[in-house]
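Listing S7. Sequence submitted for prediction.
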Amino acid sequence: MAPHSYMLDDPEFIAWRQGKRLDPADRPSWWGGWHDVVRDAVSRGVVVRRARVASEPISDFVRYEYDGTFTNIAAGEQVRWLPRRQTTDLALPGTDFWVFDGTQTLFHHFTGDGQLNEDGWEYTDDPVRVKPCIDAFEAVWQRATPHEAYRPR
């Protein structure tokens, strides 16, 4: 569940802002290590889901993520989007997070200007901290729109 914008100095984001777009037909130009990890996990029967909560109208960075989401789907991820205005009755963590196997959470801590903090990766297997993330994710997932049907404003 990403902030409005982050990592604005990412070279791929800068290239996107300058008009470069990924070509779905040119898979070698965009397929990378993360795609291999997801593909291999999915081939073992693991379900990989990504929920993106987005403020609308979406920022350039979120549009960049939206435009590149076809790569996640090609690897086997399920991706859904939920406009932030539809989350007002949900208890959501204040930072991006990933849940692994329902037992571990990775929190990403960003600076105020959208950069990943020097110590920005925090893992925990504390059930007291993991369970609220699972509950938040499931609540978002149930409401969210699959990528193929989501039309950002």
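Caption to Listing S7: primary sequence and predicted structure tokens for the chain studied. Residues 127-143 form the longest helix (17 residues). Helices lie at 11-17, 33-43, 60-75, 127-143.
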